[in-house]
Every structure is written in structure tokens, then in C-alpha cells.
Amino acid sequence: MIETNRNCCSKYILCLCVILSLLIISDCSRMTKPFKPEGVPDQAIYDRKTGLWSYTENNGIFRSFYSSGKIAESGSLKDGKREGIWKTFSDDENRITCEGLYKNDRRDGTWSWFDGDGKLYQTIEYKEKPIRSFGFFYLRDYGNENGKHKRFFPNGNIEEEGNYDGGYHSGNMTRYYKNGNIAITGRYEKDNKVDRWLYYYPEGSIEREENYSVDGLLHGFLKNYRPNRSLYQKIIYQNGVQIGEAEIFYDVSVDK
Fold this sequence. Notes:
- This protein is 13% helix and 48% strand.
- The termini are far apart.
- Residues 1-9 and 20-29 have low confidence and may be disordered.
- The protein has an 18-stranded antiparallel sheet that branches.
- The protein has 2 domains: 1-32; 43-255, Outer Surface Protein A, domain 3.
- The relative contact order is 0.05.
- It is elongated, with a radius of gyration of 28 Å.
- It has helices at residues 2-31, 252-255; strands at 45-47, 52-56, 61-65, 71-78, 81-89, 96-103, 106-114, 120-126, 145-152, 158-165, 168-169, 171-176, 182-189, 192-200, 206-212, 220-225, 231-238, 241-248.
- By secondary structure, it is mainly beta.
């Protein structure tokens, strides 16, 4: 019995040693600097968090590189802060995915994003202030969205347009179908839906109506409509809580 216990302990210790060895080897492999790709400057530094190589020239020109050796990002630094035009590139080809202006390490003016085909996908306006607070977190590329934002379909038509104020969705928002008809209209206050929101069928008639409080909670009537514009359902909310049962309306046009 004692011998059996000893054998079990020995097997346990052996397994534990194997696991520890694998962990040590794995940890050491993470500390090993990867092979520097062709085209990357000899003085480039590898960033393990991003997986990119970066190099700053004496004149402040900054470039980062993918493991393939292709440029990931380019711009200028002034006293260690991003300044001027910056661009990011796709890792599969030298295609711009994002570009815009930095001022004192903050995005400024209109920034543009591009899809996989190189077509304009989104634009957002930035200004120095106001800046949204994220508590203990410092997000240098977020929080100072101020002004219009637009998102586009691949054919160039507007998919969505609205506004930011201090990093929050604020003001009127409109979303469209590909045919140009309105899909959704509503208003935001600090990312919260407020007041009346309308959802439309592709042909233009109202599909759904929602009403919100200043806190972004459903408040008042919620109505659903059929494509023939007749009322299908009505629900009453009070500060996000449904009051009573939903009221269903039959389509009288079917009986005619």
C-alpha cells in the first residue's frame, strides 16, 4: 500500500515538473525577439503589445511595420507627440485604411476610414475640446469626437449621419437604406436615445415608433405598424418598464 502511494506521488511530481517545464519554455519563447523582416530598419524596435516594429528618424518621421515588412503606420512626431498627417495601412497590401490630422497628440479635423476595397467607409470630425472622460483610463484617440460623422455604403451613398459632442453621440441621427430611403431617425443625448424614434420600411412607411425619456429609457407609447400603414401593436412604457399588456390591433383591410 505504501509502495503504491509512493508510485502515485512520483507520477504526480513528474507530471508537475513537465507542466512547469512547458510553462517556462512557453514564457521564454514570448521573450524571444522575432525575426526582423526585410525592409525594416536595423534600429527598429519591436513592440510585443502591438506585434509591430517601429522606427523614428532624426527628423521625427515615424513608421511602424508588420511582420511582413510592409508599413503599418506612418506620420510625424514632435517632442514625442503625434503631429500632422498620419496614415494606417492594411497588412495585406499598401492600402490606406485610415488617415487624418494630429495636433498635439490628439486627432483633429476630419478623419477618414476606408473599407477593404479602398472605398470611403466613414468620416468623423474631431476638435480639441470638449473631451469625454473615461475615468482612470486614458484613451488618446477617443473622447474628442466633436462634429459630424458619416458612414457610407460601398456605392458611395450615405448609410448614416449624425453628430458627436465631447465623444458622445448627440443630436439628430439618420440612417438610410441603400435605395436612399430613410431607415431610422432619432435623437441622442450623451449616447442615450431620447424623445421620438422612428423606424421605416424600405418603401418609406413607418414600421415602428418608440419614445424615450431623458435617461434613455422607453417612456410612453411604443407602436408597431404593418407595411400597409395600419397599426398592429401598442405598448405603454414608464421609465423602461412595460405598463400592462400589449394591445393588438387587427388589420381591418383583410376583412374587406
